[in-house]
Design a protein that fits this description.
By secondary structure, this protein is an alpha/beta fold. The chain folds into two domains: about 280 residues, Aminopeptidase, CATH 3.40.630.10; about 130 residues, Alpha-Beta Plaits (2-Layer Sandwich). The chain has ten helices and 16 strands. Helix 2 crosses helix 4. The protein is elongated, with a radius of gyration of 24 Å. The mean pLDDT is about 95.
């Protein structure tokens, strides 16, 4: 029998295969759909009771007053903490428990957690209850194989990541749950492929632009001022002046897919004119047109410059186009973030990937955001990465699934990485 601690730890994970599968299936069966935030409390309590049985101190934190929080849909987060045999760093595994709407196109019950051909199907299987289950098994295997480890292990199940994280990690980070010295290293088991380590993400600015006009009878549009035509002028300037600039910018961040290494702008929606009545449009010239933009920014860009170039374009239209008036409203913004690929958690996870999978991991950044933004920007904790099972392209899709073998391998990687971090033996 091997006496290599790392090999014994991996064997301990292998012995928990069926337990891991059943744990993931149990988590998927909680329909924690956001919005509106269904069954958050029962799911959090399921996690908490399991961790309490393993000697963890468990706390439930309601994010009172955050968007969506109500007596019917309370934003309940669970944090489980286990102190080791001696002082040392704290390694925290954070997973969000909320999932997006199921949508159409499923060929199986989204919350049945069916197992077929080595895969578990269900909403949230990939994003990210498979990762949550793998992190719990990793921590339990680590505790059982090395009872005298120093330091502290934490597991959290947080809410509302799919709607910005304000009822989850953001709320907790504001209150010191994700700050040193309480926590030192954070690993988020997001579905970014089992041989990838995600060290950050692009930023985002959502805004609503409204162009203003003047109402008149639709048969005499010359007496009014069409806000939709003014919005068309905005789109034309975007095409002529802004999109070429964005396409010319390229980041040094290792963002995947490669198209996301450029700055991007998505026109999310446009709404203009009066609403229909009984199937007929109102015969009026629209005096308002609203457009929501989704601007993704690179770490080389500042949020101030990104906003500034849009405002400059709009102000040019005020000067160039007769009657052009506008207003603009910020909806949401996140600055880009990127951890050091040579930091402790990235290095220890990379070494574990090499041991478990036999190949070097790919270091990547995400085109969209996830809860690392709050840990970094609010908690001021930089040693945070995302690593977990799941194929990124399957997230939010019908017939979403997670591969069981990927869960096993990622649990081994997480257990080995945590062991290295607790012992302070970073490669």
């Amino acid at each position: 029998m091997s006496t290599d601690p790392a090999e014994m730890l991996c064997k301990s994970v292998d012995e928990r295969r069926e337990e891991l599968v059943e744990l993931a299936r149990s988590l998927i069966r909680f329909p924690t759909v956001n919005p509106p935030g269904e069954v958050y409390r029962p799911c959090a309590e399921f996690i908490g009771e399991r961790m309490r049985a393993r000697g963890f101190a468990v706390e439930y934190v309601r994010a009172a007053g955050t968007p969506g929080d109500s007596e019917r849909y309370p934003r309940i987060n669970v944090i489980a903490r286990r102190e080791g045999a001696a002082p040392g760093p704290c390694v925290h595994f954070n997973s969000h428990i909320d999932v997006v709407q199921t949508g159409s196109g499923w060929t199986t019950d989204p919350f049945a957690a069916a197992v077929t051909d080595g895969k578990i199907y269900g909403r949230g299987a990939c994003d990210m209850k498979g990762g949550l289950a793998a992190s719990i098994i990793a921590v339990e295997a680590l505790i059982d194989s090395a009872a005298n480890l120093p330091g502290t292990l934490e597991i959290s199940g947080t809410v509302d990541e799919e709607s910005g994280g304000y009822g989850g990690v953001h709320y907790l980070a504001e209150r010191g749950w994700f700050s040193s010295p309480r926590v030192n290293h954070v690993l988020i088991p997001e579905p970014l492929n089992v041989d990838r380590i995600c060290i950050g993400h692009r930023g985002v600015w959502w805004a609503e632009i409204e162009t203003l006009g003047r109402m008149a009878h639709g048969s005499m549009p010359f007496l009014g001022d069409c806000a939709v035509r003014h919005m068309n002028a905005v789109l034309d300037r975007f095409e002529r002046d802004l999109y070429p600039k964005l396409a010319a910018r390229r980041t040094d961040m290792p963002v995947v897919p490669s198209g996301a290494r450029h700055s991007t702008l998505n026109i999310n929606s446009i709404h203009g004119g009066q609403t229909e009545s009984q199937g007929y449009p109102a015969p009026v010239v629209p005096d308002s047109c609203r457009m929501v933009i989704d601007r993704r920014l690179l770490i080389e860009e500042s949020i101030e410059s990104v906003k500034g170039e849009v405002l400059e374009l709009l102000d040019q239209l005020v000067n160039d186009r007769p009657g052009f008036r506008y207003s603009i409203r910020d909806i949401f913004e996140v600055r880009p973030t990127m951890a050091d690929r040579n930091g402790p958690v990235a290095r220890s996870t990379a070494a574990a990937v090499r041991r478990v999978l036999g190949r070097d991991p790919e270091f990547i950044c995400s085109p969209g955001t996830y809860d690392q933004k709050h840990i970094d920007r609010v908690g001021k904790l930089r040693d945070c990465i995302a690593y977990g099972p799941g194929i990124l392209d399957l997230a939010h899709q019908p017939d979403e699934y997670v591969v069981i073998e990927d869960m096993i391998n990622s649990a081994k990687v997480m257990a080995l990485s945590a062991r290295t971090l607790l012992l302070g033996t970073h490669p």
